[in-house]
């Protein structure tokens, strides 16, 4: 499974926890209210936060409040399918880290995703 | 039973989270401003600036807005110390910010190799400060720009608390001369303390009367007092707005002057016309008659020739007084020119006017004007006309003048009635 795969959102919808952990890029899966439902191994390695700490929290208010802006959180405002790439800089472990974010929601999907790949 | 915190993964995560969630931007810099560490709040704040410069170096990022930050940092000779504290960084309009972005930067050199920086977004408070300053300037400009008003603040006991350019212009006092002084300093008669108590009690009060300038001159003004709003009760003061009415007085004085005969103090021809118009309208509306009398000192040239012009002037003043002494309130005495006077008698018909004229004639005949040791006797001749329906005052005065002429022809020192208009 590739970060640039056009069918990534559908693939993530079908993936179980082990499959998410096997991905080489970070994935945050959120429910309709942005509560984190899955935080894969790659994402955990990037941020330094364990899934146990993050799952069950609201991503934009309790995990990464600095992404609660028009560039990231704002993309999820419109209902329906979403698949967009956003160049961004994360402060992963306080190091400025240029990343590409891929924000996704399948048509009719219950989950929404924030995938992270270092640039 | 160790009191030392263990270096567990969970403790490390706590620290990471602490920095991830910190709402203030925190950075660690290398010896030349290289960004070594930055928390997400720092990324977020600096991201709009980073488009061109990248995230490599804080001094590069801030150079266009923070001035010689790099030199300030290098100039700090000591190996450690504060480079700047809450220094304003004016970035201006940036994407994603509704207000012009202003940051406050604190930069501390920890060692030659390492510095720590804290950046706070102070856009909102700076914007509010500027709005408040603008509003204050506008109000000040308004208060200082208005010429006939002064605005000042009093404490609850009537002592002057605040003073500004408008008050200074009106009263002539400097701020230092009056702040802390009782408001009676500004008043001619009243102490003003009653008005202050009343304003605090009732919500407003007024202060009419005479006010005093620094040079001692007094002037008429209207004061409006109201309690200062939005303050704690014990700190309540009173705002006093003073409207200078001396300008209006001067205008009215000028108008009066233009309608007054300077020698005798009675009305001049313009004054008779002005007051006559009003009296005529009122009398006609009430269905009352109006009469005029025209009168003239007999042989006045002889008075001048015999006793001199100053004596002649004294006679004219005495004549004006004699006329004024025989008319009622609402009647008008006017000097029409030279030794010629006119009376306007609203409410008087021809018979009444003849009576008034005769009384004036008798008063003058009985009077003696003393001037410079001389005792001067003189007489007057008078003509009387009652205004006919629709007749202007000037026309009636002409008929009275014609009657006056006949009185002169008839031997002077007498009263003659005018022929009715059209009657010949």
Question: Could you walk me through the main structural features you see in this protein, from its secondary elements to its overall organization?
Answer:
The complex is a heterodimer of chains A (119) and B (424). Chain A has 5 helices and 5 strands. In chain A, a hairpin with a 2-residue loop joins strand 3 (82-92) and strand 4. Chain A is globular, with a radius of gyration of 13 Å. Chain A has helices spanning 8-14, 17-21, 41-47, 51-54, 59-63, and strands at 26-30, 36-39, 82-92, 95-105, 112-118. By secondary structure, chain A is an alpha+beta fold. Helix content of chain A is 24%, strand content 32%. A 5-stranded antiparallel sheet of chain A has the order 2-1-5-4-3. The model of chain A has no long low-confidence stretch (mean pLDDT 93). With 424 residues, chain B is an alpha+beta fold. Chain B contains 14 helices and 18 strands. In chain B, strands 6, 7, 8, 9, 10 and 11 form a 6-stranded antiparallel sheet that branches. Chain B has a 5-stranded antiparallel sheet with strand order 2-1-5-4-3, with helices on both faces. Chain B has a 5-stranded mixed sheet with strand order 13-14-12-17-18. In chain B, a hairpin with a 2-residue loop joins strand 15 (369-371) and strand 16. In chain B, helix 11 (300-307) crosses helix 12. The longest helix of chain B is centred in the N-terminal third of the chain and has 23 residues, at 123-145. Chain B is rod-shaped, with a radius of gyration of 43 Å. The model of chain B is unreliable at 1-5 (pLDDT under 50). The interface between A and B is medium-sized, with 21 and 23 residues.
